[in-house]
Amino acid sequence: MALKGAPILVCAKTHCSHLGVSDLRSNRSGFASNLRYDFERFRKWECCCLGALSQRAITPVEDEKPSVSVTDISGKTEGTRDHESREFYKDLNLLPRPLTANDLSSSPSDGSKVRVAYQGIPGAYSEAAALKAYPKSETVPCDQFEAAFQAVELWLVDKAVLPIENSAGGSIHRNYDLLLRHRLHIVGEVKLQVNHCLLGLPCVKREEIKRVFSHPQCLAQCEMTLSNLGIIRISADNTAVAAQMVASIGLRDTGAIASARAAEIYGLDILAEKIQDNDENITRFLILAREPIIPGTDRPYKTSVVFNLEEGPGLLFKALAVFALRDINLTKIESRPQKRHPLRVVDDSNEGSAKCFDYHFYIDFEASMAEPRAQYALGHLQEFATFLRVLGSYPMDRNP
């Protein structure tokens, strides 16, 4: 299969005071006094096309740490364990093994169905999001976010579905950093209603649980419930991994906080449902692909961009104002440090110099790149930005 070139919009700093912006009026002359010529004059974008797969460099992630695998679970059980437990161990060994960053031997999809990568193991919320986006897909578990990115880039899978923010826990900073390090495109989003369940071994009562395993964010989202029950919290790599650990350990006083699907897969009982402190707990996932989609105007679209700014008074205000001037609603803004150049020395006074932090700014706004107002806004933003990249323009998910 040939790899098609995919245009990636990367903008170096150029002055665009000659942009044609039809929606700016004379009372906004502070931003657009010289914007009078045709829109075609401003389109001096640098377009980089991806070459063959062998020419693409995947930037290694310095602080990636290998996860602790718990998939090698012994089939031995105590004599008191019932028939259902024995069946659980037999089925557990048949579950797909998560991909790692070094596991590159799998053959690509034959096209019969979409292969979608997610971080975690079967029963994770990420798997549920992948199945919501592609109900008939073949889901492929990955042990780390980095492995999911690489699985798409190396044609092991067609798409990846990864979390980017949670309504209670906030942003997933790791994936923001990986979006910039890799050359994948955002082609969609999935909003998933999260229902945390307290899981235990069969026939165990809730009062018997003394400790629980779960992901740190999940434990934080259930803080009040766990405090009222007096339960000790133990961190795990993933909610589904926590359920798997409880099933493998086999201790009656040990439970997990995970999804109802995880309980079904690993043979656990649901002792309590919706134990999160906030009932409206929604996680937003991004759908990533090798090729961008062609944005349209037939339905609501969202566009995600990342840019850098020079140091100076009011520059961030000016950058955000290019959207307000065109009635474009911003739904998300996130800043992440530039790890390669975290500090900049600036002459601040006659007594010496001051060190300022450099940041990447990520923005989501409600508009399609097929709309002229979005094109004009990014053209205007280019006047202040030293770097600008469109991560994707994709349909919005309005049905959590």
From TrEMBL:
Domain of life of the organism encoding this protein = Eukaryota
Query: What range(s) does the Prephenate dehydratase domain occupy?
Result: 115-290
Q: What is this protein called?
A: Arogenate dehydratase
Q: Where in the cell is it found?
A: Plastid, Chloroplast stroma
Q: What does this protein do?
A: Converts the prephenate produced from the shikimate-chorismate pathway into phenylalanine.
Taxonomic lineage of the native organism = Eukaryota, Viridiplantae, Streptophyta, Embryophyta, Tracheophyta
Pathway it works in: Amino-acid biosynthesis; L-phenylalanine biosynthesis; L-phenylalanine from L-arogenate: step 1/1
Q: Name one GO biological process term.
A: L-phenylalanine biosynthetic process
InterPro entries from the UniProt entry: ACT-like_dom_sf, ACT_dom, Preph_deHydtase, Preph_deHydtase_CS
Q: Which enzyme type, at the first EC level?
A: lyase
Quickly give the catalysed reaction: prephenate + H(+) = 3-phenylpyruvate + CO2 + H2O; L-arogenate + H(+) = L-phenylalanine + CO2 + H2O
One CC-aspect GO term? chloroplast stroma
ACT domain sequence ranges: 304-395
Q: GO MF annotations for this entry? A: arogenate dehydratase activity; prephenate dehydratase activity
* Entry keyword set: Amino-acid biosynthesis, Aromatic amino acid biosynthesis, Chloroplast, Lyase, Phenylalanine biosynthesis, Plastid, Transit peptide
